[in-house]
Specification:
protein serine/threonine kinase activity; 8 strands; transferase; Kinase-like protein; alpha+beta; two-stranded antiparallel sheet; Kinase-like_dom_sf; 216 residues; 12% strand; two-stranded antiparallel ribbon
């Protein structure tokens, strides 16, 4: 928690949820931040299905650009549940619990692995060894800016379809699909009145390229 605080609190951007302080309540450390009455992006879009999803994506992309290119931070868990919506409809990136500094990520060797929270948003290079051994718990290597880009493509899919990629599949099956170069099906889930355009689907596919350096 203190590591998350040290990484999150200095961030200063209009589309990043500010972290005000940390305090101890009933013996537990607690993060203090603004209350977002609209909840996360997924919940907000369920209640407002005709809201401009592109606006949420653009604002999130601006936050990601800031943490990567100005703050030198990898988020590590980009998904709809970590995009909060303000009372005025502004998207704010939150929860840097899986994040790390870019410099630290580069120093971590390949065998260094740690538990992940969200398989559906993880890039294939992060858990190739898990695909080979289904008896092992879901583990990943250190995340990078390029794995954040991969997750952003999954975020596009989630917000437009109403479900994360590979919904209902086990971590092992997801790992196998990604390591084989498979992509989620564009068809299936759709939100009322909003579908992924050809240009947005092209962006998803570029974010999901197997080679990290080929991603936008």
């Amino acid at each position: 928690l203190l590591r998350e605080l040290n990484r999150w609190q200095p961030l200063d951007h209009r589309h990043i949820l500010p972290l005000y302080a940390v305090c101890r309540m009933r013996g537990r450390l607690t993060l203090v931040m603004p209350f977002m009455e609209n909840g996360d992006a997924c919940h907000f879009l369920q209640l407002n299905p005709h809201w401009d999803i592109k606006k949420i994506l653009v604002e999130t992309a601006q936050a990601v650009d800031y943490i990567h290119n100005t703050a030198g931070v990898v988020h590590g868990d980009i998904k709809g549940a970590n995009i909060l919506i303000s009372a005025t409809g502004t998207a704010l990136l939150s929860d840097f619990g899986l994040g790390t500094t870019i410099a630290a990520a580069k120093d971590i060797t390949e065998p260094s692995i740690r538990y992940a929270r969200t398989a559906q948003f993880s890039a294939p290079e992060l858990f190739a060894d898990t695909a080979a051994n289904p008896d092992e718990p879901f583990r990943i290597r250190s995340k990078t800016t390029m794995s954040d880009v991969f997750a952003f493509g999954a975020l596009i899919y989630e917000l437009y379809t109403g479900a994360p990629p590979w919904a209902g599949m086990s971590d092992h099956v997801i790992a196998l699909n990604l390591c084989r170069g498979s992509m989620p099906d564009r068809r299936g889930y759709t939100r009322t009145g909003q579908e992924i355009t050809d240009s947005l689907w092209d962006l998803c596919e570029r974010c999901w390229r197997s080679a990290p350096m080929e991603r936008p």
